[in-house]
Design a protein that fits this description.
By secondary structure, this protein is α+β, with helices and mostly antiparallel strands. It has helices at residues 2-8, 121-136, 141-159, and strands at residues 12-14, 28-29, 73-74, 80-85, 92-102, 105-112, 168-173, 178-185, 192-199. Residues 44-63 are annotated as: Disordered.
């Protein structure tokens, strides 16, 4: 397939040259399970708002504040996290998505709990990544459609075992220096993997890093 050849032959960058999320947030146990909610937000299913600590109070709006309207929670370090409940264990929730500005780069991760993509995570991750790409790169509609197909193929290859955990980033948007990485996560109490996009030259963000 042409898309396979294109993906596997694309320019690969050492992970040391890009920023990735430094840790996988620790899963939490609760006494009661959250109620299900059906919305169109990126962080929409298995809502856990009633179980989380109060949102961080900010004196000025972050350039990423729109994520709050998508169901994300802002953390004290300035990052934004999407928490979801674990359908396999009542009363447990964990980090599904996280986005942060690190040293001027926009870094967004979709975490594989236990190294496994849960049902529907690939499509939700694509919507999450494409929202960030639309808002923080100069890619036009045609380019975004190509990028979505590229990332969709990347997720498919991960699920099929055709792409292994590694320290390499695959370039998918030259102007913004955006790469996608399938990498191990070793920090925190949970071990696993994440698929991360790293936008080196993001648009519409403050120049100072949030970390």
């Amino acid at each position: 397939m042409n898309i396979i050849a294109r993906l596997l032959s694309t320019f690969a960058i050492s992970i040391s040259a890009v920023a990735v999320m430094p840790y996988f947030a620790i899963a939490q146990e609760t006494l009661t399970a959250p109620e299900q909610q059906t919305t169109q937000r990126v962080c929409s299913s298995d809502s856990v708002e009633n179980l989380l600590p109060p949102p961080v109070s900010q004196e000025s709006r972050s350039p990423l504040s729109y994520l709050g309207e998508e169901g994300f929670t802002q953390n004290p370090d300035g990052s934004w996290t999407c928490y979801v409940s674990d359908s396999r264990k009542q009363g447990r929730y964990y980090t599904l998505f996280k986005v942060q500005q690190i040293n001027g780069k926009l870094v967004a991760s979709s975490f594989l709990d236990g190294g496994i993509l849960v049902e529907g995570q690939d499509n939700r991750s694509l919507d999450f990544f494409m929202m960030l790409i639309e808002k923080h790169t100069k890619a036009n509609q045609g380019n975004r459609e190509s990028i979505r197909r590229y990332l969709d193929a990347f997720f498919s290859f991960v699920k099929q075992g055709k792409i292994q955990l590694s320290n390499r980033g695959y370039l998918f948007d030259q102007p913004s220096g955006a790469v996608v990485i399938y990498h191990p996560v070793t920090g925190g109490k949970l071990k696993g993997a994440a698929i991360t996009i790293n936008i080196s030259s993001p648009e519409n963000l403050s120049s100072s890093p949030v970390s």
